[in-house]
Specification:
The structure holds two protein chains of two kinds. Chain A is mainly α. Chain A has six helices and three strands. Chain A has helices spanning 7-15, 23-33, 42-54, 75-97, 100-103, 107-110, and strands spanning 21-22, 58-61, 70-73. A three-stranded antiparallel sheet of chain A has the order 1-3-2. In chain A, strand 2 and strand 3 form a beta hairpin. In chain A, helix 1 crosses helix 2. The mean pLDDT of chain A is 90. By secondary structure, chain B is mainly α. Chain B is elongated and about 95 Å long. The longest helix of chain B is centred in the N-terminal third of the chain and has 64 residues, at 22-85. Classes of the chains: A mainly alpha, B mainly alpha. The interface between A and B is medium-sized, with 17 and 21 residues.
Chain lengths: 111, 173
């Protein structure tokens, strides 16, 4: 069973799902994808990158700018992201089936 | 004015990066400074000085938190490495303590076993010397370790028997 990802790790994997990026691009993409709910500073960003490299979720690759370090998803990272998205999808399905959104007054999701 | 806000911020951040553990700094320090530099330029362009102030408030939290994490992880990694490097010594000490616990516990339930402090000290020294002897042979004389192991173990058994009941000497009396 895949390990549940931390929020910052989930968004970093998501940002790398389409293409490889360097640190600043990852940071901006995470900010955009999370509607500015997840704001990564360089400390948190590279701490997460270090852990994700160690657990082989991402790997370093060469990119357009030779002075920058680019990162891309590994097969394990791709599987981990898919499993996480699947979990979210199942949770949303369950919430819809059991009418949780309406009961919580979350009209936007219930529609 | 614009330049001084950006340049001063970059200078301060480069000083903060120096507080990270060396191996982490070598690996990610330059990238972190680049990310910060781009962030501060964009923020100044979009939100001016107030934006940079807000960015710094976030950076202080982000840097402080990650400094603690990285130093902690470095410390944990070094401790783990030390334990791995000294696992043979740890096994010898642990084994000696474990063996000495047998008579100590048995004494609590029967009078047939009666060891005093001197017995524990002698047996402890004997076990430690044997254990470290085996470790030394294993490291330094890999090609002859089997006969040397046998010699050390036989030496231990002979000395133990000699001290306990006396075979060729009266050391045990």
């Amino acid at each position: 069973m895949e390990q549940t990802l931390a929020q910052s790790e989930f968004y970093i994997l998501l940002s790398l799902a389409i293409k490889s990026r360097h640190g600043y691009e990852i940071m901006k993409q995470v900010e955009h994808d999370s509607n500015r709910k997840v704001l990564l500073g360089p400390g948190t960003l590279y701490g997460s990158i270090k852990r994700m490299l160690q657990s082989q979720l991402i790997q370093e690759v060469t990119g357009d700018n030779p002075r920058r370090k680019y990162y891309t998803l590994t097969e394990r990272g791709r599987a981990s992201l898919s499993a996480e998205l699947q979990r979210y999808e199942e949770a949303i399905e369950l919430a819809k089936r059991t009418d949780v959104f309406s009961n919580l007054g979350l009209v936007r999701f219930a529609l | 004015m614009v330049r001084s806000w950006i340049r001063n911020s970059e200078r301060i951040y480069s000083l903060l990066v120096r507080l990270y553990p060396k191996h982490y700094r070598d690996e990610y320090g330059e990238e972190m400074q680049f990310v910060f530099s781009e962030s501060v330029k964009d923020t100044y362009k979009e939100h001016g000085e107030h934006g940079v102030t807000r960015l710094w408030m976030r950076m202080v939290w982000d840097t402080g938190r990650s400094l603690i994490i990285q130093h902690w992880e470095t410390h944990a990694m070094k401790t783990k490495q030390t334990l791995i490097n000294n696992k043979d010594s740890a096994a010898v000490v642990g084994g000696t303590i474990g063996i000495l616990l047998i008579p100590l516990i048995t004494m609590q339930f029967t009078t047939d076993v009666q060891w005093d402090v001197f017995d524990f000290v002698v047996m402890g020294a004997l076990l430690l010397a044997t254990g470290f002897g085996l470790v030394f042979v294993n490291r330094k004389f890999k090609n002859y370790r089997l006969p040397l192991f046998v010699m050390i173990v036989l030496g231990f058994l002979w000395l133990w028997a000699e001290l306990a009941v006396g075979i060729f000497t009266n050391w045990g009396s």
